[in-house]
Design brief:
Largest sheet: none
Oligomer: single chain
Shape: globular
CATH topology: Na+/H+ antiporter like fold
Function: Involved in cellular auxin homeostasis by regulating auxin metabolism. Regulates intracellular auxin accumulation at the endoplasmic reticulum and thus auxin availability for nuclear auxin signaling.
Helix content: over 70%
Keywords: Auxin signaling pathway, Endoplasmic reticulum, Membrane, Transmembrane, Transmembrane helix, Transport
Order of helices and strands: HHHHHHHHHHHHHHHHHH
CATH class: Mainly Alpha
GO biological process, one term: endoplasmic reticulum to cytosol auxin transport
Number of strands: 0
Subcellular location: Endoplasmic reticulum membrane
Radius of gyration: 27 Å
GO cellular component, one term: endoplasmic reticulum membrane
Structural class: mainly alpha
Length: 410
């Protein structure tokens, strides 16, 4: 296919994202004051708790079966590669530049997690609808592409809230501990020392003291047994706390799991999916709610990017490092990994599937990074600047890489 046609095909979805993002930015301006901070919070809550789970659940229920899930087994591994390679490159960049401690968690998170959620959900259907699309019939391309994109979103949500979340939390806690001044031991220690200095005279031992001592010994033995039991249970309690099941089972992740169960288990799929399904109204309702997810998320991206126009002390070198990692180094690694998997025959021969796998390496940082930084109160303004700069750069880099990827898989 002509390279120019591939370029225009790759450019159209990026332009659509930019137009809707620009609309969100204008709506957030004080002159219009529609997507102000309160409205953004409410809309973000709807997207997080309602629209995204409904979208992912409905698409996965309709398109994913056990057979197709086996065929795309490489995608979870591929997404894991994007996270681990991005983290390694980000850590290497931090060691070279010696970035300030308050920026390290943000930089690592942005290098590790790509926008594998709403960006593929926008780009892939738009590519399928183009007349010059190299991926065949529009309906077939759209159905398979949305399944791939939804599965990508489901997998990335799990990795973000189990892997990246703990990276940013660890660095945020490290900063907090360094800046924290703890003088709590001065009072008790001084009191103990004074008590020791003022203590004089031998103690008088009575029969009652012996009885109390025996009781204390018995109690000490029982406490020792409890302590041993607690020592056995302590690692398990720490594991549960580290996993943070509330975060792990976030609404988008729960929607993904529910959609996979309905799609993979044939009796459930017959109950909810299809024209003759007895509970098809449930799936239709979820699909209607999910249709609002993509425009709402894209408008929020534009509204949140407005914060990035504020001044910050973030060094330009950190921004350049994130851009180099996400838009140069990671796509090169992606080409090597995916092409190696294709040549070795471990993934099935589907150009659209190959394109999605490659696209996962060239996306801007995940929007969830902004949510996590707000949660820990670390680098919120700097995160907005990163999102602004990386999304502007993505308009050019994503178009070029998409063109190259389409040429590569054909």
């Amino acid at each position: 296919m002509d390279l120019w046609k591939l370029f225009t095909t790759a450019l159209m979805p990026v332009l659509k994202v930019l137009l809707i993002t620009g609309a969100g930015t204008f709506l957030a301006l004080h002159r219009f004051n529609i997507l102000r901070e309160t409205a953004r919070k409410h809309l973000n809550t709807l997207v997080y708790f309602v629209f995204t789970p409904a979208l992912v659940c409905s698409i996965l229920a309709k398109t994913i079966t056990f057979k197709s899930l086996v065929m795309v087994w490489f995608m979870p591994l591929n997404v894991l590669f994007t996270f681990t390679i991005g983290t390694a490159l980000g850590w290497l960049f931090l060691k070279i530049t010696k970035a300030p401690p308050d920026m390290q968690g943000l930089v690592l998170g942005c290098c590790a997690a790509g926008n594998l959620g709403n960006m593929p959900l926008i780009i892939i259907p738009a590519v399928c609808k183009e007349s010059s699309s190299p991926f065949g019939a529009v309906d077939v391309c759209h159905q398979k592409g949305m399944a791939y994109a939804s599965l990508s979103m489901a997998i990335s949500n799990i990795y973000i809230w189990t892997f990246v979340y703990h990276i940013i939390r660890a660095y945020s806690c490290r900063i907090f501990n360094v800046n924290k001044v703890d003088n709590s031991t001065v009072g008790p220690v001084s009191a103990i020392e004074a008590d020791l200095e003022n203590h004089s005279g031998a103690p008088v031992v009575t029969a009652e003291d012996f009885s109390q001592t025996n009781d204390l010994v018995t109690q000490f033995k029982s406490d020792t047994v409890v302590t041993k039991q607690e020592q056995i249970m302590q690692p398990l309690k720490k594991l549960v706390k580290k996993l943070n099941l509330k975060v792990l089972l976030a609404p988008p992740t729960f929607g993904s799991i529910l959609g996979l169960i309905i799609g993979v288990v044939p009796p459930f799929q017959k109950m909810f999916v299809g024209d003759n399904a007895p509970f098809r109204v449930v799936e239709d309702s979820a699909s209607m709610l999910g249709d609002a997810c993509i425009p709402a998320m894209t408008l929020l991206v534009g509204a949140n990017l407005l914060k990035g126009l504020k001044r910050s002390e973030m060094k330009p070198s950190l921004l350049m490092g994130i851009i180099v990692v996400r838009y140069i180094a990671l796509p090169i690694f992606g080409v090597v990994i995916v092409k190696g998997a294709i040549r070795s025959g471990i993934i099935h021969q589907d150009p659209l599937y190959h394109f999605v796998l490659l696209l996962q390496y060239a996306l801007p940082p995940a929007i969830s990074i902004s949510t996590i930084t707000q949660l820990f109160g670390a680098g919120e303004t700097e995160c907005s600047i990163v999102m602004l700069v990386t999304n502007v750069c993505a308009a050019f880099t994503l178009t070029l890489w998409s063109t190259f990827f389409m040429w590569l898989v054909l």
